[in-house]
Amino acid sequence: MTDLSFYTSKLLIFVILFSAIVGACCTTLDYRIRKDLPLVTKDCFCSFCGHALSILYQIPVLSWIFLGGKCHYCKRKIPVRYPLIEAGFILYYCVTFFIFQKHPILYIASWYLFFVIFLLLRSDRHFKSLFKGLAILCVYHIVFTTVLLMILAALSMPAV
Predict the structure, then answer these.
(1) Which of 8, 32, 49, 89 has a CA positioned 20 to 30 A from the CA of residue 108?
(2) pTM of full prediction above 0.85
């Protein structure tokens, strides 16, 4: 394994984790915008029974699979669109990572564009909440961009 493929695989894991978080955040924001609920709260909750979800039940895609697509507390089916959207974010972010790997600014810009389009298409009539949601996701992406660019800069530095 070459050094480049070693670092690329580490960056890919970072991208997968980040995209899963953003996908989960987008599904949560979409639900809360449509229901006129506060966008930032202390706990995530089941949309059916209202029970606060522990961190284990909030892992994007995997928790849905391990729970059999049902809420742990009320046993009602969780719509399949949630893990599909999260998986779509993971797929999109990974594909753009490979396509624009040599140009990090391009894939970061494509990610910003993706979540903006996603929320704009999903959030009609709720523009005030939509802008709050976009602001929240921009903060996530600014932190991610900073960390990613720091990692890329460290990888391009000559060894001491």
Answers:
(1) 32
(2) no
